[in-house]
Amino acid sequence: MKTVLISGASIASPTLAYWLSEYGFAPTVVERAPALRGGGYKIDIRGAALDVVERMGLLPRIEALSTDMKVAHFVDADGKRVASMDAALFGGRENTDVEIMRGDLGSLLHEATADRVEYVFDDSITSLTETEDGVLVTFERGPSRVFDLVVGADGLHSNVRRLAFGEEGRFTRDLGHHISIFTVPNHLNLDRVEMGRAEPGASALMYATARAADARAMFLFASDGLTAARHDIEGQKKVVAERFADHGWEVPRLLGAMADAPDFYFDSLSQVHMDTWSKGRVVLVGDAAYCASPASGQGTSLSLVGAYVLAGELAAASGDHAAGFAAYERELRPFVAANQALAESNLKGMVMKSAFQMRFQMFMLRLLPHLPGSAGMAERVTAKIHEAATSISLKSY
């Protein structure tokens, strides 16, 4: 039985661990955090990714935890509603697509694997050394161990990628925008409603999902040279506060809640592009290998599908990891390319560059329901996303 160490415990990792255990591998998951990470923002599961969770038997439970968002409203600086649209259309979703909170999906995946996978929390990999017997792995806290294979499923800032392939900057491409998300009190008493306020170069949103007592605030903005060190939380909060200081609407109150937010998140919108996702007995999956950025709306789906394909191709290769890794790349790369391409086009509608563009978009949103053939226009909005989400046919391994 081949042993596989997987770094990270978010979405790709437990999905990969599930399928590896199905095929007779012995997976171990190591996670830097002391416990499973909860919270997070709402994410979409589309196309081929729906097939993955259905084959895991999780689709009914995922659908039961849907955010059930109803509508998105756009307001001006005084909070006056200037346009509205259906929440599914706003998120680029078709009828079968499911939107769920990231923490809820992570919990379901962990629950599906907890009785068959070894989880090691509050630890991290410090070195990887290939030997005749496998990969010698040293940890920050635990004793060294040897594994047949090591997988980096540890996100955009992957530790495994750095150790095996080199520094992050060689593989990341900054899309020129930053994003910040955190929990806030639902002082507007929103119920499955999203509200947003846009200015040139920046958008502020607030939403509350089904079953949630609180809300989430999201700030998306063109970087314009603004930076903060990755681990400098106070510096990051200062960047957000300065960028949105004059934004109007409910933004001052949201920024006030930022100081005590238990789950403050801040990062650049970046993608990962690599010539190869494997090196020796080490391989990458999900954001670590091919992050598409939140602007694509497909990061979760890429993680689910990538994990399924990697496990399946390793099983099909009957123990030949080099052949399995190569097949994984051949099978997945066109799917990755199609979904990464969504990010920059989506960004144009998420953060508008000029006041004219912003006014024109609001005008079209108000006009859309009254136009002949408006349903067809709406379908065209989601068609590009759907095409990318279904651009792979999953094998039965």
From TrEMBL:
Leader sequence residues: none
> Which organism is the protein's source?
Microtetraspora malaysiensis
What name does UniProt use for this protein?
Answer: FAD-dependent monooxygenase
Q: Which GO terms describe its molecular function?
A: monooxygenase activity
Which keywords accompany this UniProt record? Monooxygenase, Oxidoreductase
The taxonomic lineage of its organism, from the top, reads: Bacteria, Bacillati, Actinomycetota, Actinomycetes, Streptosporangiales
What Gene3D superfamilies does the entry give?
D-Amino Acid Oxidase, subunit A, domain 2, FAD/NAD(P)-binding domain
Which Pfam families does the entry mention? Answer: FAD_binding_3
Give start and end of each FAD-binding domain: 3-338
Which superkingdom, per the lineage? Bacteria
Spell out the SUPFAM superfamilies in the cross-references.
FAD/NAD(P)-binding domain (SSF51905)
Q: Which PANTHER family match?
A: MONOOXYGENASE (PTHR46865:SF2), OXIDOREDUCTASE-RELATED (PTHR46865)
